[in-house]
Amino acid sequence: MSKYQKICKKIAQLSPEVSVKEERGCIVLRGEVDSWETAVNAGKLAAKDAQYIGVVNDIRLKGFVEHPRLPLEHDASLDEMRPDVLIIGGGITGCAIARELSKWKLNTVLVEKGPDVAYGQSRANGGVVHVGINFSKHSQKHYYNIRGNSMYAELSKQLDVPFEQKGQVLLCCKKWERLLVGALKLHGKSMGIRGVCWLGREELLKHEPCAPDFVIGGMYMPTGGITSPMEMTAALAENASANGVRLFLNTAVLDMETKNGHIVSVDTNRGRLYPKLVINAAGVYSDKIAEMAGDRTFTIHPRRGTDIITDKKAGYMVKTSMEKSPFSILPYQNSQIPRGPLGRIKFMMNILHSNTKGIGLIHSIHGNMLIGPNAIETPDREDTATRREEVEEIIKVQQHVATDLKFSDIIAYFTGVRSATYEEDFVVRRGIFTDNIIEAAGIQSPGVTAAPAIAVDISKWAVEALSSNMAVKKNDSFDPVRHAPPRLAHMNEQERNALILKNPDYGVIICRCEEISKGEILDALNSPLCVPTLDGIKRRLRPGMGRCQGGFCSPLVMQIIAEHEGIPLSEVKKSSVESVVTFGETKGAAV
Amino acid sequence: MTNTDVIVIGGGPAGLAAAIAAKKAGAEVLLIEREARLGGILKQCIHDGFGLVRFGEKLSGPEYAERFIQKFDEANIEALTLTFVTKIEKTPEGIRLTAVNRNGVVQLLSKALVLATGCRERTAKQIFIHGTRPSGIFTAGTAQHFINLLGQMPTKKCVILGSGDIGLIMARRITLEGGKVVGVYEAKSTPSGLTRNIYQCLYDYDIPLYLSKTVTRVFGDDRLAAVEVCSVDENMRPIEETFEIVECDSLILSVGLIPENELAENLGVELDPRTKGPVCDEHLMTSVDGVFSCGNALHVNDLVDYVSESGECAGKAAANFLRRERTEIELIIGKNVQYLIPQRLDLNAEDLKTVLYFRSREVLQKNSLILTVDGCDVYRKWFSVLRPPEMERVEFDFGPLGLTPQSQVYFRIEEVERT
Fold first, then answer.
1. What is the pTM for the complete model shown?
2. Contact B222 A488 (CB under 8 A)
3. Which of A172, B66, B164, B283 measures 20 to 30 Å from A446, CA to CA?
4. Which CATH number fits the domain that encloses residue A373?
């Protein structure tokens, strides 16, 4: 039986409703099933055979209709535009590509469907700059992660974005785990990951003073780091914009016209564009964009992940980013281990494959502790709603590692949706079936780490592709440096005093939890990528992200926005056009 | 560097009373307030009912505050408004504060410090409400800020979660402004707010109060579209079969207040997990010598009259603060007592006449507060009813008891015959 026949047989066993075909080098699944799990499992089975370019899984879930959230804006501001490059997606990948391309004299346009950059996975993200020890040596994830990791320090400096490299720690509870960790260490070495070492408990406590008592030691990986994905994305976008890239928010790609494997035009809610080259960095929608362009060889199966944020007061519980080793059985689980060998293996497999296996503790760049994320398959690409049972489970599991953790330490939690492919790898490549597209698709974790490296390759390919029809010159005026506006709470008293003397608004504290002044909010409103909404300010400066969650400061921030923009208070929105905060003046607002 | 006897942080009712009392006791006083105007949260509390205990009058919040602001001005006390404290340290010379305002970074030094930093509201995330992230979810205080200070209507049709006083007040306020309040939902089986507010703010306006029901989830991508409500069991866990969806454009939360003690924590002040405020002696001095606490930073009060009273106590004591040894004993609480303030008694004090504030754990009819010293009942006070939302106040002179550092002082609430 051929591999193809084997897959067909297995999928037929899974569901008779699913048809399997080989098309254009891909394995294509179609049909309609009752459970999303079946659809995902069929995709996973199809991905087992590496001879295909990828899995195109078009199995529908009965009764499920997708409702992509599209911007309400409709105008012709982009109509008839003929950019050299059109980047679709303003996440960290798209913005990193935009900045990289701004090193060239090109007419580059970036469109983002959301009301801000970093509106998808890039915002719902712990900010770990990964070591990448768990990736396969031949994966794109490894290829770009290791390069991206080594670029972060320099890039963060150029863009004035906070970055710390305190390492990553894998905690071990039992002596025998040292053997497995040893294997992982060798694997790391063969992949070129430097500095990985075993630390006994005493040494480990120097890095993680709050490691629980049952931890006998752990693997320390010094290249692990932490960034602020939102700040990094905004900085990349600002720098790209300063170097000539035009960014359009609230702009969604709706359709494309292709002819003989060539994209002719791209329709958006703001008009029809005629780009020479399209770059697909559309995150959870990247397979949809590839489909429009006729270049689809993969499928996004959205995977939700929830993270929990604690008060900074609980930030001491973790100093790096740490998680228990995937093999570890925590003391509380000892009693659950079945007696027989088969039962034990099954038990271990369950631990290795549980929805919470990848959950760790992260010391965020702002000093909070971040707990998460879990991993739950979902048919809905934009299902960022949080769920009680999931949050409770994450906390329950992590209370065994962060033993001081209390429910009252938690100030917020959020859910993001990963753009996972069935190959569980990035799709970073030139177009296969379409000549003027480049894919930066299926970028999920470690996308934040990998983005700068992906951008280098994509920009190189873009310049090569364009050079066949035009002369692409270096942008001599490219300035790699971006200065972040001042953050006064991080300054010493002399610096702070000097700035307040220059601008007294820096002395007026608006957000008491995160200590943010009126002057800093005005800076954000005057920044090149100004998003004058409550969330736009919150995402850049963090008012509303502290323990009061905006209770005190949101009316004040709204007043500052209204005054700066010259609009009535009721016109200041939380985020999208429809996210109204107040309905206008009292008395006049009667139903 | 400004050098003074007493610094008061916070210009709400507690801080104003503390500053006035400290000045009256002869101290040089400086008050620091982060907002532009004095009065604290009272500025936005335009309903009446303030000052019944203290003045025998029903005042609005701003009126009540104004009485103190006038006295504050008459006493010529210095205030730094729009000034935010960024750092506090204890040094051999005294307590050193760093603050910022429009003039720059200010350094201050004082012999004693009164923390009158108030409290903040619990948020939707802290009570584990799940779902999407639309606009339209406000704490009651934020909704009150919009309506009463900014003249902006934050809702047309809302659900209120929690029957705390601000939530009840806001139910009436929103109704008066033409908004619809679908209902007030309370997870507990008894209301959290004052009884008078249940009648005056809900029943008088036909607003339903749903007990043992809570909100578990919110819906809506942009603006809130609906909430999921359900009944809860005795352990506050949702009961599966009772989920229902209620359409509304706002969810207003009145689910508890948390004393703000981040500055106190930086100074190493010991906090009482029951009150979430500092552990204090009868002069409201915290575990750190020279640092006092009052008002809602000390514990969440239900009447402003008692906020002012604790401010006066702390302010006066701060003015008279002398560095001396304390001999403290713990006031132990037991049966049916949710908390008691003060938590400790300094036996070295000249005067042991003490104002005690306490709350019962649950609603109790015909019960007594009983004080036991070394196993002997020495005091009891009878109450026809005790309700957790209603704080009780008792004055007691520990002086005649002849307490020693070894004394076991124990408070409990028990059903005993009225004597």
1. 0.93
2. no
3. A172
4. 3.30.9.10
